[in-house]
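Shall we go through a protein fold together, starting from nothing but its sequence? Please make up or recall a protein chain and show it to me in full. Go ahead whenever you are ready, and we will take it from there.
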Amino acid sequence: ANPSAAENPPSACPYHKPADAAPAEQVDPRNMMPKFSQDASKDQKQELSKDREVSTIPKTGEKDNWVYPSSQMFYHALKKKSKTVDEEDVDDVVRVHNWTNEESWRKVMEWEKMHEKTCPNPTLDRFVGLSEDLSTKGWLSSKFGRLGRPFDRHDWYVDRCGKRVRYVINV
């Protein structure tokens, strides 16, 4: 026998979250990162910088540019990904991260120059870190290249005046 629609409406969800379940982590859909705290972790041995640097990368739909995470926020992100890093190295890691992003944006702008007549000011809409997913170029490099597997991959979604364009950044 088929249950009637009144007994089992199509919008009814069979899953009910337990009352004692942990709250869902808030994730920024533009970079798929949780909002990391500026507070030190319980196991931290030294204080990390809480200063954030404003990038040169314009953010789609906003007056302001993208802002890089502080060393403290970056440390939390590394721990969340089960990456180990010495606390005294975090400031240097953040500097390299920020420099790499600036250079990547510069390269993206070289490609975007081909479209400057129709879109003089492209912006970065969002980005996604996909360190475990190799691009075709990353896979070829890991199998046959001198440099081996890329350290990281980000897919950047650039707003070219209303047209979304994806750039795959292998580092």
